[in-house]
Amino acid sequence: MANAKKILIAGIGSDIGFALAEYWLKQGHRVVGTFRERTVKIESFSSKLEGLSYCDFNDKKSISNCLSELGKVAHGWDALVVCPATMEPISLFEKTDIDAWIDSFSLNFLSIARFMHGALQFKSKVGRPAVINFAGGGSNSAPQNLSAYVCAKIALTKLTELLAAENLTVNFTILGPGWVKTKIHDEMLAASGASDMQISETKRRLEEGDFVPMERILFCCDWLLKSGREVSGRNFSAQHDLIGNGKLTEFLKSNENFYKLRRYGNYAKRGAE
Predict the structure, then answer these.
(1) Quick one: DSSP state of residue 80?
(2) What is the tens place of the pLDDT at every residue in 143-168?
(3) What is the pTM (predicted TM-score) of this model?
(4) Could you give all domains of the chain from N- to C-terminal order, each with its CATH number?
(5) In degrees rounded to 5, what are phi and psi of residue 125?
(6) Going by DSSP bridges, is the β-strand pair 6-10/30-35 parallel, antiparallel, or unpaired?
(7) How far apart are CA 105 and CA 80, in angstroms?
(8) By 3-state DSSP, what share of the chain in percent is helix, strand and coil, each rounded to 5?
(9) 77 in helix, strand or coil?
């Protein structure tokens, strides 16, 4: 493939990471991945990859060692997709083990920031490299029992905007996949601190197959990878946005604040007036 890109997928053992690897390999791109558990599925897939490195996002030394390896096999990457995430601990904040809460925030945000910081040192100097992270619920609501996960994802969403403002040669985006059928829902079903409503909704979706199709996530990530500067710094929704529509692209070019975290009601009069 003449225009083959080198794509680095952190967390290739995740359901989305694995699907993306298969999708982009079929397109003729070169894929490098990281894994935490070397499963039979990954083992059978490893020969198709340009590189595969162990990385535990719970361990900063592991991240450092992985980045050292990737600096060789993934040098000059054109796209970076970061998949590791956990919803745990799933419980009311005041009833949560605070160390577990901090560990979750670290994995979902600080470790990702550490990995991106290292990986950016050996990105491609040609074209416009793309960095894609994944958002979670909570930017427009307040989900219960998920404060560590939601706070980390909100921080990651803002970091996406900050990095886009700092670096005009790299596209930084974050995609909210919505309800996709992945292993992460096992955490909700096993959580003693989850509400009855959260458990029943998860079970309902699993029974009815009520999920955003994986094909939609693949399409959205591919679109973000190929898009221009207008997408950088923004939080997209795979389920709700008209991704792939030319009208959206033109709209983004003239609307700097669209799909970004902003305080609602800035222009309303103060209540005391």
Answers:
(1) E
(2) 999 999 999 999 999 999 999 999 99
(3) 0.94
(4) 6-183+212-253 (3.40.50.720)
(5) -100, 10
(6) parallel
(7) 21
(8) 45, 15, 40
(9) strand
